[in-house]
Design goal:
Bound molecules: adenosine-5'-diphosphate, zinc ion
Largest sheet: 6 strands, mixed
Number of helices: 23
Strand content: 5-15%
Helix content: 40-55%
Shape: elongated
Strand order of the largest sheet: 6-8-9-10-7-11
Distance between the termini: 64 Å
CATH superfamily of the largest domain: Peptidase M41
Oligomer: single chain
CATH class of the largest domain: Mainly Alpha
CATH architecture of the largest domain: Up-down Bundle
Length: 599
């Protein structure tokens, strides 16, 4: 089909060229009226005349060309021409010319017919639902032999790998698994930024289990014609049932799985139907052991909640950007088949590439090989990696995601602030790990490890949380001065304020207000004191008292955090250095740092 279109395009161009050529020629010929022609003959100005029926082309003695048209058949013209010694040239009727003019006049019709045929075939391909048309849809199917990817090829996301490992056992022997009462998710949602290896991990599951891998992209479903996407979904699942056990992998599920009705203008019929079809197929899995649907997205927030309901994509695996250790391992995986010179230190490369995804690192290795090949080297050297890194970092759009040294330092202080306060306030969860690898919108993350699933928190524990939340911003303030504090603490402030508000208005932790519930259905917590003041149940006096209590609670804990950080400024420096060096530090390293060690 592509060939066909191409042919028409070329023909079109060809004809356009000819037409333009003719026009250019015409430009040199001056058109005059018949009277001018006659008077020119009388004045003996015409040297030669070519006559094509009623058209006459003539040349004067200056070799200028003219054309004219006989208004009626002038029988005396020949006589006049002969009388004035004009050379008369006749033209035989030209066959080729007629063909050509026919072609020109028919061309638009041909073009229309061509386009019409093209679209008819397109529609047939899409709507037809038999097995032959399925082959033509964009789904690619890899048979079990083709998938050679295993877990060994996926590096640096051990947690995600652990989470999907049981799927392999299930796919290998679905019946046995079922007999033992194993409950297997029908759908797994892989969440993570692009290039972090979601597709790779899904393939590795298929590779390890030796099952078919059916892959398609969410955008394949978004078609012009309503109903086509849904038909395609039906096709894919139909095929998968024949192939089971197998994995269906849907990349960019957010292209179809967006929150229904969230589009302005009332929603998109086609996408809605496609999504509904996916849900229907998933719900019909019950009797079909051995099919696992894996979908990937980097926007879980826009997904329709129906997709995340139990029995659908209820298992979620987060595949985040790798930290320095992960990058080290990924680099090693990709260097396996590349001749590497002995001066290459993967750890140093890993340190210098914060924010790189697995795909970026794979690209980095590839670029380095190209640099080495261009220089006719037998091995790839460290210098090649440096050059490749510069090329990628400076030349690519991802630079905004990759932090500058300044940002990195600021983030390191901020996260260290959270950690130190968190470790030194009473009754607070221990820190699990802390990282300055950017994740989503956050530049760094401090993860606390709750010791048990406590639902009831004491007043002391809550106050400790508030102090800890301010630790990040305070560390920045102490180091850089109050005027240079970044906006990175917005979320911290929001969470802390909500905690304090709940303590005062819901949980009865304020002596002045007593154990009363002052607020109803304010769950989202996005607006607080203002809506309180307008709440008719609360007097203005009470509202201002609530404000005051929240403020004093926060101030008390803010000051406590400040004192803790100032008293432990040396630990703050050491932890910042450790974070810049390792990017992620774990509980035992934090323990060492808290005891005054330098890492
Ligand atoms: P995603 O589906 O998350 O966008 P892909 O799985 O398509 O990313 O990754 C693209 C390529 O990047 C892979 O083919 C692989 O070469 C490389 N890659 C990504 N993540 C990893 C990883 N964790 N380990 C090894 N290679 C990786
Ligand atoms: Zn913070």
């Amino acid at each position: 089909m592509v060939k066909n279109v191409f042919f028409w395009l070329i023909l079109f161009f060809f004809l356009m060229c000819i037409l333009i050529g003719l026009n250019l020629n015409n430009d040199l010929i001056h058109e005059v009226n018949y009277t001018t022609f006659l008077s020119a003959i009388h004045k003996h100005e015409v040297r030669k005349a070519r006559i094509y029926g009623k058209y006459i082309y003539f040349v004067n003695f200056m070799h200028k060309k003219y054309s004219t048209y006989m208004p009626f058949y002038d029988h005396q013209l020949l006589h006049k021409l002969l009388l004035n010694h004009v050379i008369i040239v006749g033209m035989p009727p030209q066959k080729s010319n007629i063909l050509f003019s026919m072609l020109v006049s028919w061309f638009p019709t041909f073009l229309l017919i061509g386009v019409w045929f093209y679209f008819m075939r397109q529609v047939k391909n899409n709507v037809g639902r038999n097995s032959t048309s399925f082959g033509k849809s964009k789904t690619r199917i890899f048979s079990e032999k083709k998938i050679k990817v295993t877990f060994k090829d996926v590096a640096g996301c051990d947690e995600a790998k652990e989470e999907v490992r049981e799927l392999v056992d299930y796919l290998k022997t679905p019946k046995k698994f079922k007999k033992l009462g194993g409950k297997i998710p029908k759908g797994v949602l892989m969440i993570g930024p692009p290039g972090t290896g979601k597709t790779l991990l899904a393939k590795a599951i298929a590779g390890e289990a030796g099952v078919s891998f059916i892959t398609l992209s969410g955008s394949d479903f978004v078609e012009m014609f309503v109903g086509v996407g849904a038909a395609r979904v039906r096709d894919v699942f139909h095929y998968a049932r024949k192939k089971s056990p197998c994995i269906i992998f849907i990349d960019e599920i957010d292209a179809v799985g967006r929150h229904r009705g969230s589009m302005f203008g009332g929603g998109n019929d086609e996408r809605e139907q496609t999504l509904n079809q996916i849900l229907v197929e998933m719900d019909g899995f019950e009797g079909n052991p051995g099919i696992i649907l894996i979908a990937a997205t980097n926007r879980p927030d826009v997904l329709d909640p129906a997709l995340l309901r139990p029995g659908r994509f209820d298992r979620q695996v987060v595949v985040s950007l790798p930290d320095v250790q992960g990058r080290n391992q990924i680099l090693k995986v990709h260097m396996k088949n590349v001749p590497i010179s002995s001066d290459v230190n993967t750890m140093i490369i890993a340190r210098g590439t914060p924010g790189f995804s697995g795909a970026d690192l794979s690209n980095l290795v590839n670029e380095s090989v190209l640099f080495a090949a261009r220089a006719n080297q037998k091995e790839v050297s460290m210098l090649d990696f440096e050059k490749a890194k510069d090329k990628i970092m400076i030349g690519s759009e991802r630079r905004s995601m990759i932090m500058t040294e300044q940002q990195k330092e600021c983030t390191a202080y901020h996260e260290s602030g959270h950690v130190i306060v968190g470790q030194l306030v009473p009754n607070h969860d221990p820190v699990h790990k802390v990282t300055i690898v950017p994740r989503g919108r956050a530049l760094g993350v401090t993860l606390f490890l709750p010791e048990s699933d406590v639902i009831n928190l004491s007043k002391e524990a809550l106050e400790s949380q508030i102090s800890t939340l301010y630790g990040g911003r305070l560390a920045e303030e102490i180091i850089y001065g109050a005027s240079k504090v970044s906006t990175g603490a917005m979320n911290d402030i929001k969470v802390a304020t909500n905690l304090a508000r709940n303590m005062v208005t819901k949980w009865g932790f304020s002596d002045k207000l007593g154990p009363l519930l002052y607020e109803t259905n304010q769950e989202d917590g996005s607006s607080f004191t203002h809506s309180l003041s307008t709440n008719s149940h609360i007097s203005e006096f009470t509202a201002s008292l609530i404000d005051k209590e929240i403020k004093s609670l926060i101030e008390k804990n803010y000051c406590r955090a400040k004192k803790i950080l100032k008293d432990n400024i040396n630990i703050l420096y050491a932890m910042k250095d450790a974070l810049i060096k390792y990017e992620t530090i774990n509980a035992s390293q934090i323990h060492d740092l808290m005891n005054g060690k330098i890492l």
